[in-house]
C-alpha cells in the first residue's frame, strides 16, 4: 500500500468517525462503503469500532458482519444487539445468527426488522409460520401488503401454497380410501409425502399434519406404519422409541418390509448387531433387499463365507450381485484390513469411548460412518468430543458431516476450528469462504497458511492472492513453485498469468512476456470460464493477461 492510499484511508476513516459523532448516518455509510468496496477491511475495523461507540448503526451492522465472517460470533451478536431495535439490518443479522443457533429469540428480531420494513425479515417470519405447520397462514402472511417490487416473496408463497394443495389432495384421497376400506388406496393416498423430505426437514411442523394422514392410512394397511416411521426418523431430533414402536407394529401385522427398515435404521445408528438380526428376519421372509443388506454387512465385517452364502441365494445375473461377488473375492485376497477399515475394532473402541476417551470416540464414529453403514446424523455425537477438545482431524470430519447434513453454519464453524488447529485443507476451505464474502485480506491469510502443505495448487492460490494485493515480491516464490510443479495441471494457465504479472511488475519483462503470452492464448477457456459471471467483484480483481502482456512488451521496447 503506497503512501497516498494510506493517507486516503486515514482521512476517510476519520471522516467516518466524525460523521458518526455528528449523527450523519448517510455520510458515515458512504465512508463505510469506501472501506468495504475497496477491500480495506483490516483498515476499516478500528474506524468502525470508533463509529459504533458514537452510535452509528450501519457501522455496527458492518463490523458485526465481518466479526461473524472471521469467526467471532459472540462479538457479532453483541454488535448486532447494539442497534437491532432501531436498525433493520442489525435486526435481520441478529435474527439470522440466533436462528443458526436454534434460538427461538430469532423470531422476535425478524419481527422487529419487518416492523422497520425489511422484506427478508418478512420472508423469515413466513418460513417460521410454515415451520410451525401452518403453510396456508405462511402464504397468506407473505402476500399481505405485497407490492410489485416484492418478487422475492412469491417463491415462498408458491412453495407453501403447494404444500397446502398436496395435503388437501392427500386428505381427499384418504377419505375415499376409508370409505371403501381399501388399504392399497390408503397407501397410495399418502405417497406424495415421500417427495417432501426437504419440506419436512426445513419446516418440521408440517410433519404433524402429515403424521395424522399416515395414522389414518395405517388403520387400513401396515405399510403406512412403516411410512410413518420413516417420516419421523428423518425429522430433526431423536424419536427412536416411537419409530421403533411403529415398525414393530407393522412387523407384527405381517409386513416383511418393516424388518428391513428396522435393520436399515439400526445400521444407520451404528447398532450393527440389531441391524443384522432384522436383516436376517427380512431375508428369511424372502425380502431381497434384506438379504442383500445382510450380505453387505457380513462383507464389511469380513465374514466372507456368510456373505457368500447370502449372495448365493440371489440372482447371479444381477449386476449388483456380480459386483459384490467380485468385491468379496478381492477382499479375500487382500488379507487383513487396515485399522481404519476393520469393523472388528468397534466393541473395543466403543468401550473406550464410553469411558471418556475422546479420540476413541472419534475413531469409533469414523469407522461406523466410513465402513459400518452409519450415517452423518448419528455419527456427529461420536465426533464431537474430540472436535471440542481441539482435535483438528475430528473437527474437519465433523465439518464434513454437517456439510452432508445440509447445515452450512455448523459446517463452517467446525471448518474454522479445524483450520485454527492446523488442518491445512481446512485452511484452504476457509480461504474460499472468506473470498465468497469478499473478505480478501482474510482469504489471503488463509491461502498462505494452506500453502504450507507444499501443494502446487495451494501455492498458486496464495501467490495469486498476494499478487492481487500488489505484494509482488512475496507472491513470486509461491507462483514459481506452482509453475514448476503444476504447469501441466488445470491451474497452469492461471499460474502462468499471475507469475507473468509478478515478473512484469518487478522489472523482468522478457520472462514475463513468455508467460503472459502462454496465459493470454487460453485464458478465456482455461480460467475465465471457471468463474461466475455474476461475481463482479471477483471479475474486477482478475488479471487481464492481454493488457499485462501489452504493458510488458511496451516496457521491453522502451528499454
UniProtKB/TrEMBL annotation:
SUPFAM superfamilies given in the database record: HCP-like
InterPro entries registered for this protein in UniProt: Sel1-like, Sel1_AlgK, TPR-like_helical_dom_sf
Top-level lineage group: Bacteria
Gene3D superfamilies: Tetratricopeptide repeat domain
Record's protein name: Sel1 repeat family protein
Organism listed in the record: Actinomadura violacea
